[in-house]
Amino acid sequence: MTFSGLGRPFKICHMTWTTMRITGVSKPRWRKAATAPGCRFLCVTPADPPLTGERYRVSRLPFSRVTAQDLNFFQQELPGRVVTDEEDLKSHNIDWLRTVRGNSKVLLRPQNTHEVSEILRYCNERNLAVTPQGGNTGLVGGSVPVFDEILISTALMDQVISFDDVSGALVCQAGCVLETLNQYLEGQGYTMPLDLGAKGSCHIGGNLATNAGGLRLLRYGSLRGTVLGLEAVLPDGSILNCLNSLRKDNTGYDLKQLFIGSEGTLGVITSVSILCPRKPSAVNVALLGCESFDRVLQVFTLCRDHLGEILSAFEFFDASCMKLVQKHLHLNNPLPANAFYVLIETSGSSTQHDEEKLNDFLVSAMDAGLTASGTVATDQSKIKSIWALRERITEALAHDGYVYKYDLSMPVDKLYALVEETRARLGSTAKTVVGYGHLGDGNLHLNVTAESHTDTVLAALEPFVYEWTAQHRGSISAEHGLGFKKKDHIYYSKSREAVQLMQKIKYMLDPKGIMNPYKTIPTADQ
Ligand code: FAD
Ligand code: MLT
Ligand code: ZN
């Protein structure tokens, strides 16, 4: 059993990173790539994916096509902010995973709610379909058009409107980048209640629209709890103002919840009010190696017992993930090779108290033989290096080949059995089959890579993965949403009655179906 650089018992605050093998980790390349057209990540990939309509054999619905007159209208409304150049549009037509491709001919860049309202009012009258787009980091093909839907980007809606440093309520426009908001808040002693690997590119409006979970849901809960209010423009151009900043408000239906997780199908979220916690002054991160998934589960139980209120993340990933980040991103594993890795983060307000608790927990985990090796970091740059091993798995997978991505929730004791069964089922058809995720939330990311997209691999995976998940009473989308790719699988997780009610709500708000068509909710006749 080895804990790098330390004998037992040890004091976390005395650990020196020089005894470990991690060296500096560069800023994830995809962060830039996800926002900048023609950037490194997008350029190194050889071919564009086929058009979505062709690969998935979808028929275009009878929406109007954009005319010169329409472009004139948009130019008048948004002078200099109407993009029609094919090269400039390219990165907005392809998703982050490079698995779907639309053919939009125009992208609009409004700066405020009024402009979004004018655009939607016009598009609704003209029967022009639209796709709202934030940072385009969505993983289910929801953020790019399927055909020629007009793209409405929130990139220029990036202003903080107000911040109350007593209550922690932040009000901002929907296009604020998550990481930028976090930096803004940190200057005032606060932090965002969510964090995810795409933070450098994703917009807060996109986070709400997908109801993103991320790495600290365990601590701060879901956006359904932390979002205090929002403003959205409905498909007919009317503005729904639910932008309050109250902790408590039981006056009628909670309409904001309809838009959280609606994936651009009910309207465009234009502003957000969100409750932010104080920035923790003491943060520790531990990376542990475990010999089996059973041990990972035991570490989780022990960890909750010992760390209780200071636990802020409990993530796991398997040996194949570690190999991928080493191979494609040249990250260093500070531990000897293990079958599984657990990343534990604590955040609190007392360094000494938190370190003592973490120390006790680690000693207990080692005494019980639950972990074979481990390392602890307390300073910011080292913490980042450990987090990179987990956060950048998504990026490493994208380097490995075509990614078949599944985002499932189910009882934690079942999580890894699905990965093992999938691996056995696919054999050499797949390049890599990996499992990682937010174990503390019962959320597994099962990912399979192959040289390319083939119907054979897809048929081996679906409906197998969905049926397996449904049999274990899980959800086929824990946090990424349904978008284009998972829409028709909604019935594995929701009843016919529930889907019918969703269809009625969609029809009530968007009778012409112009908002992000072909996404999230199956059409009523299915
Ligand atoms: P986009 O990708 O642009 O859009 C996503 C969806 O929301 C689309 O349907 C779009 O039409 C809609 N939309 C966007 N903005 C608006 C708006 N203002 N109004 C209405 N609809 C809108 N997700 C997690 O849950 N947890 C994670 O840990 C996580 N990690 C990730 C790590 C990486 C490296 C990547 C690439 C993605 C990750 N994701 C994760 C996926 C996640 O959904 C997104 O990163 C993020 O929430 C989407 O924000 P975005 O601004 O990029 O939205
Ligand atoms: C993550 O947890 O890393 C994200 O949800 C992205 C992914 O699933 O790859
Ligand atoms: Zn995730």
TrEMBL record:
GO terms for cellular component: mitochondrion. It catalyses: (R)-malate + A = oxaloacetate + AH2. It is an enzyme of class 1 (oxidoreductase). It comes from the Eukaryota. The keyword Oxidoreductase applies. It is found in: Mitochondrion. InterPro entries: FAD-bd_oxidored_4_C, FAD-bd_PCMH, FAD-bd_PCMH-like_sf, FAD-bd_PCMH_sub1, FAD-bd_PCMH_sub2, FAD-linked_Oxase-like_C, FAD-oxidored/transferase_4, Oxid_FAD_bind_N. Keywords: FAD, Flavoprotein, Metal-binding, Mitochondrion, Oxidoreductase, Transit peptide, Zinc. One of its GO terms (molecular function) is (R)-2-hydroxyglutarate dehydrogenase activity. Residues 100-279 form the FAD-binding PCMH-type domain. Its main location: mitochondrion. Pfam families: FAD-oxidase_C, FAD_binding_4. GO terms for biological process: malate metabolic process. Its EC number is 1.1.99.39. Catalyzes the oxidation of D-2-hydroxyglutarate (D-2-HG) to alpha-ketoglutarate. Also catalyzes the oxidation of other D-2-hydroxyacids, such as D-malate (D-MAL) and D-lactate (D-LAC). Exhibits high activities towards D-2-HG and D-MAL but a very weak activity towards D-LAC. PANTHER family: D-2-HYDROXYGLUTARATE DEHYDROGENASE, MITOCHONDRIAL (PTHR43716:SF1). This is D-2-hydroxyglutarate dehydrogenase, mitochondrial. It comes from Leptobrachium leishanense (Leishan spiny toad). The lineage of its organism: Eukaryota, Metazoa, Chordata, Craniata, Vertebrata.
